[in-house]
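Continued from yesterday's entry.
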Amino acid sequence: MAGCGAQPVTRALVAWAVLAAACAPVDDTPDVPLATLAEIAGPLSGAVSVGFGVSDKQSRLVNVAIQQGVGVSDRPATAGSGSTELRGLATSPDGIDYVFVWDSVADIGYQPTESVFVGIAVSAGSVAGIGDQIGPLVVDNSGLPRFYAVDGQVCRASSLLGSPTGDLRGKLYIGLWQDLTYPPTAQSIATADLGEQDFSTPTACADFHFAQVAPGEYQLIAILDDNNNNLDPGGFAADAGDLTNLGGTRVQVTEAAVDQDVVLNYAYQP
């Protein structure tokens, strides 16, 4: 067959149609979702906006995963405040853009770090797509205020000292104080409502988590409100007399996250 240039007018119309189809541009893009990352200027610090686009010939909904790591992006990236939800994202053949907010402090820490890579993986149901990776990048969080997590469990003592006899079920609260006197006279700097708990069993425990704690010395106090209506979770304001003088749990927050268990040694029942 002749090339794709002008054809003699004597050629049949059907032959011309076949030739035109043969000469049309060929779309060899795989029929799978595609994800691309926008380049990021560095050095990076704190909450990093990671722009990405997703496209799909069939406009299917996709799930994406943002990854990070030193040398290779092989670990999940922690989402920061205001980040895009990464599941059920709309696509189009031309692509739709989104922004993931990466909490680089949570993943990299405060030390200046080179050779950081950020990657993206994408899928539409069981269909794996084609992702992307950018790097090496420099992440330097050394100039940011430092905060660390305090995690642990509240577990009851073998005997609930100071507790009235009776029901050991109710709302569990834990508070974090910079005031190290006991009972504390200042307001707690953070409180957590740990929900309904049953401490009738001696081995009962409940997890707690404070995400943003500056280095320093603190005390943790956990208290069970067995009437379910007497403590204010905004202020954790049981009267000093109600706390008795059993003492809180001291915790020293240094240059790392802290694991600290707390003994529940008081149940509040006015």
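--- second protein ---
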Amino acid sequence: MGQLWNMIIAGLFAGVVGWLMVAPLTLVIDTTRQRYALEWRGLVRVRLVPDGCIHLWVVGWTKLIDPFRQPTVKRQKPSKPKRPQPPHRQRPSIRTIIRISRILLRTFRVRTCEVELDTSDFGLNAYLYPVFGLLSRPGRRLHINFNGTVAVRLRIENRPYRLLIAYIYLFIHLKSSSHDNIHQ
């Protein structure tokens, strides 16, 4: 009987971890509806409310944060003496940072990209109209208008398992490339 419970608990744990790995992380920016949100579906949601407050929701718990409110003054504790700083590690090169950034950015998927733009200059709008027409695709709608409307709708999605795979790839690839550089 005890082994059955262990298997049930292990199965539930594996199911929760599996769900967390495939639950989408979504960034939504919609200027027409004034919706700005970051969400890990079913777990965490952070929204910017039109009055400037931040609405935080974490598994049923909600909190409204006002970043412009003056914080209450707290009594300061006496400061502790500083410990000597450990020696700093060597910083990665710009090339390494760019390579890491490219690999991590490839894990993101742009689900919706719609840009509605008016530059208030008829000549510039006329030049940009065919360029935006050529750059538009089914998932990316770029539009120039002549009526003063400026709007952006953007929805970017990622899943934790893609980030984990990218980190594992980076760890293996960077370890082997640094090992090869040492022996050359």
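The chain has a mean pLDDT of 85. Residues 25 and 61 are 19 Å apart (CA to CA). Will compare against the first tomorrow.
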